[in-house]
Amino acid sequence: MAGTPDSLPETPPRAAAPDLLTDVLRSIRLNGAVFLSACFTAPFGVRDPKSYAERTPMARLRHVSILHLIVEGECEIESAGTARSLHGGDLVFMPLPNAYQCWSGKPERMADASEIVRPGTVDGLWLVDHGGGGARVRMVCGFIESAEFLFAPVFRGLPPLIVERATEDHVGALIASTVREIVERTEAAAPGSHVLLGRLMELLFIELLRRHVARLPEGATGWFAAVRDPLVGRALALLHAEPAREWTVDEIAQRCTTSRTVLAERFHALLGRPPFDYLTAWRMQLAAERLRNSRDSAMRIAEAVGYDSESSFSRAFKRVTGMSPGQWRDMA
After folding, report:
1. How far apart are CA 207 and CA 173, in angstroms?
2. CB-based contacts of 288, cutoff 8 Å, min separation 6
3. Domain span at residue 86?
4. N or C of the chain: less Cβ packing under 10 Å?
5. 86 shares its domain with 171
6. Is 82 in the same domain as 163?
7. Residues of the chain by 3-state class (helix, strand, coil), percent to 5
8. Are the C-beta atoms of residues 260 and 303 closer than 8 Å to each other?
9. Phi and psi for 94 in degrees, rounded to 5?
10. For 235-286, how does the pLDDT look when each residue is reduced to its tens digit (9 = 90+)?
């Protein structure tokens, strides 16, 4: 059948193609930070809500993904119907966190996280010391904040709960050493250390993503699978390299050495949308980032993402986001 992996035409190597993951991460402005250093002792149980109260360190962030580093001990975690056992050295990531719970042993009750956190000595770093006095579990918790509201291939393309065994390979050794560095600097809690901790958290997140992509099974769908696909990945590289270009489906297909029918089928199979819907969403993500982080006029931004008039850009932006470019800029 046309469009199946076996029938895809061969494509030449993507020489000098951009790193699409890096490209997207740059556009969504990652901001990592460590917010909690925790020591639990068995038996214990803690529940974290999907929505954070005003007093918690993540209450005002636009989009938050949770990253836990298990430094020592063993415990269980459950989120969105998925349960995993955790061990020292594990890295836990929840891209779009729902309510979740973590426990060891048989606690009498699940404590709400807001009941047990307390401010640390450094602004922005909170502490937890909780449990029944038994076997110890230490973890460092952080978040990845992003401006990924529109395009959203990264976070929405991931499972709800990811656990990385940090010592399985060479990259795992890097992650493990980074974990130790985070722990040491969290315990020292020196002024300014939160900046370095945030960068380390971003590094862990990016390495986790790369490992996730490398292990995708055959037949996987979504943005990560599309990036790895020989045909759709090549098309995405073209669109990312020149988002303002007046592309046609025929031109994209020709440069990918395939037919427009096969190209459309592969896009729909992997991304659930045609090439031009993807291109529009990518243009709006780039425009949203510039509206938020620059003083450029709407017309200048429109031209940069492929629109020849401010009115056509504004209509497209409102269609995708539900608000005008000016409203978006005002709320940024």
Report:
1. 11
2. 147, 149, 150, 317, 321, 328
3. 23-214
4. N
5. yes
6. yes
7. 40, 20, 35
8. no
9. -120, 100
10. 999 999 999 999 999 999 999 999 999 999 999 999 999 999 999 989 998 9
